[in-house]
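Q: Structure tokens for this one, please.
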Amino acid sequence: MKITAIKSVVVNAEMRNWIFVKVEADQAGLVGWGEASLEWKTRAVVGAIEDLTPMALGEDPTRIEHLYQKLYRQSFWRVGVIGMSAISGIEQACWDILGKSLNVPVYKLLGGAVRDRVRMYTHLGGGNMKAVYESFDPGPVIDLARQVVGRGYTAVKVVCVPYSEPLMNVSYVRKFAGVIGKLRDAVGNSVDIMIDFHGRTTPAMAVEYINAVAEFSPFFCEEPVPPENVAALAEVKRAVSVPIATGERLVTRHQFREIFEQQACHVIQPDLCHCGGLLEGKKIAAMAEVYLMGVAPHNPLGPVANAAALHFALSTPNFLIQEDMLTDVPWRWDVVQHSLETRDGYWLKTESPGLGISVNEKEAAKHPFQQEVIHSTNIRAADGAILDW
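A: Here is the predicted structure, written as tokens:
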């Protein structure tokens, strides 16, 4: 079998553009789909896919490790998140082809199911960017959390940490703690609360914020500091009693290596659309397993990414919980036909061949590329300085 064509299909889903990758093989009608969505980098990722295509044409799509090694190593320049997102989308599509050619679901090719269902969590506000990233007032946070719990979820994520300078006044800490306290009272102890810091804080402020909410027992606090400094992350982990998660902005097992060596977190969060794909995600998870770390893959992306994440979770022993963004646009499942089923806050197994999805290119064409809202350009300190968002 040989790869004959690779194509990108871009779908604007309001808050972000989805980048679906179509890999065609030389067997009649056999195509695979992957996802390479990367917010605010759509044109760059599509260009990277075009750059990688000549290296993949003529290769056997079922020799997945071989093809990954070629795309990663023989590009010479090691690629960052843009290039790795392109590789991830191609790699997922090859798994889809392999599963379809053998008439088995991908999770069976990844070692088989180690669980019967996959626990999910979601953000507040679905596709509303302000609701997701500016959860600073308890009223809307509680209302949206109750809606999420009403849909069957047993875990929610909030992004209510203030946009922070290196040190912040105690009033910000107390307001943040007040939101989390009221949220805990509203949802009770049976619902897990994850707090996404979005890399907004320094170690000093992260420790202040986390210690202020420890009594409310967050499931984990995510990315408390920017990803560039692993020692800073380890400093936070040692200073708090709440579990720490990170990894959405890291790619390949090589970037995760220092996290493991410093035991800088409790939960890793590789994104299967960025880190290198399913097999690279499995390697990262296996490294985490040695250090007794859980895996909670990052995924606020499109429906092909949902499918890939399901197969990963079903087959990964130290998997913990899976992020989704199923309510971002109402026509999500018009664009992608699927065999995925959710029940009571869990994804169920699918027995459909491959990833269990197919992109309807006619429906996708109804939502062409548009420039996403560049939310981050408005984030400033009181004196006008740029802050992490």
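A few notes: Residues 145 and 220 are 17 Å apart (CA to CA). The first strand starts at residue 3 and ends at 12.
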